[in-house]
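User: Here's a chain of 167 residues. Predict its fold as tokens.
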Amino acid sequence: MKTGIFYSFSSGKTQGVGERIVKEFGDNIEINDIEEIDGSKFLDYDLIIIGVSTWFDGGLPDYWEDFLPEFDKADLSNKKVAIFGLGNQQGYPENFGDAISVIAEVLEPHGCRLLGFTSTDGYDFEESKSIREGKFMGLVIDEETQPELTVDRITNWVTQIKKEYNS
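Assistant: Prediction complete.
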């Protein structure tokens, strides 16, 4: 499986988590800065991993907002996509990790299949739009209040998406 991970290098915490995912994933994963590519780049991969942070009241960072029209260039039929997002459950408990849902809602109409849904257990927040059928639609990392859990969450998630990809 050819895997590409996509995030912005200008977002330090998202880049840091992305680098940890790459290290955990091992060989055969290519890193892409979304500020330097177009939507057709997604077609190069069998598995697409997207990293995005949630800003303020649940919105996307500007670089992702600017990139969203690029998805219209990509037919993602039969592509498998896993999303990780950063959020702050204490600072923004009413929209924790919402950016994952924004990306998912843009991608799914283009034919992809989402992988890597994770449990909401162990988090303390009020609301998140990124919950579907009782689970987050990807991996949510809180580097602000739970950095000690990041490594284990990444390890478990990477193992999970590799299994889901092959099923």
